[in-house]
Design goal:
The protein is of the alpha/beta class. The protein has 8 helices and 16 strands. The termini are far apart. Residues 1-259 form the CN hydrolase domain.
Length: 299
């Protein structure tokens, strides 16, 4: 299956412009034969969490968190998928669900139906402080290949990737939070996750602007468990046959995914689950024992 990775420029808090860019990228990907296109995090607002003040953030969460599927971004992505007859996987947007706000990734079929919704599980201290809530469920999306979705700090915790692999993922997609400074540890972490789970990983970065000012660029990264880093995509990276430069600020890389994926064996999945369960049952027992000892000493 041919997939397209969109390495895009997003403008902070400029939904109309960001949507226009996404339209061009998806159209070009479809024209080049892609069956799936992967769009970056915060396709509507850009990564406002990383580039706005705490006071502005409160306003953004209040006024820009959207309901799914009735919100404007979900509707836009569904329409885009139908118009281009293509699967779309989009990085997290701010989702409003009752009193809670989540960072939620979407997978949409060519008929416009939402076939996957993943609420980011791992929260940082700053996430909690601004009022974000944690998701409670892993998400594997079946689009011929099985895509396990991770967002932001999920990749720093091996349990998430291992759980997605146990559930049958043949490829993992990571949506990092784009910040002013790129965390170089992320490259090592993603390569490790790829090796320890024996699956390829695609991490979708991008470029951030405010007005006409450049703020940051995170590379998009493709890892193979045997070959390591296959490609590091930036606007300045070498242009190859499989790369389309949609504009001076947007790039799309095409990838034949079947060249890298392996179908998981049910027996192996069961073994991994047994191992996973054994370790965490033992951890729970020992932690409970430590708590009991601490309570005794405090009395």
């Amino acid at each position: 299956m041919k997939i397209a990775i969109a390495h895009m420029t997003l403008k902070l808090l400029s939904k109309k412009l960001n949507f226009e860019r996404a339209k061009k990228v998806v159209h070009e990907a479809k024209q080049k034969g892609a069956k799936v296109v992967i769009l970056p995090s915060m396709i509507n607002l850009g990564p406002a969490i990383s580039f706005t003040s705490p006071a502005q953030l409160k306003s953004i969460l209040k006024n820009h968190a959207e309901r799914i599927p009735s919100g404007g971004t979900a509707y836009f992505l569904s329409t885009l998928a139908v118009q281009n007859s293509i699967f779309i996987i989009s990085g997290p947007i701010l989702e409003r669900a009752g009193p809670k706000v989540f960072l939620t990734s979407l997978a949409i079929s060519p008929t416009g139906n939402i076939v996957g919704k993943y609420r980011k599980i791992v929260l940082s201290h700053s996430d909690i402080s601004i009022g974000l809530s944690s998701g409670k469920s892993l998400e594997v999306v079946d689009m011929k290949e099985k895509y396990g979705i991770m967002a932001e700090w999920d990749s720093y915790h091996p349990e998430i990737a291992r759980g997605l692999t146990i559930l049958g993922s043949t490829v993992l997609i990571n949506f990092p939070r784009i910040e002013p400074v790129f965390d170089k540890k992320l490259k090592k972490i993603l390569e490790t996750r790829s090796i320890e789970n024996n699956v390829p990983i695609m991490s979708i970065g991008g470029i951030i602007k405010s007005q006409d000012q450049f703020l940051a660029e995170f590379p998009s990264l493709i890892y193979d468990p045997y070959e390591g880093l296959l490609e590091e995509i930036t606007l300045e990276s070498k242009k190859e046959e499989k790369t389309m430069k949609v504009s001076d600020e947007d790039k799309v890389v095409l990838l034949e995914l079947q060249n890298y994926t392996q179908k998981p064996q049910l027996q192996e999945q069961k073994y991994l689950m047994e191992l996973f369960t054994t370790v965490y049952k033992d951890l729970k027992k020992k932690m409970e024992g430590q708590e009991e000892e601490a309570t005794k000493h405090s009395e």
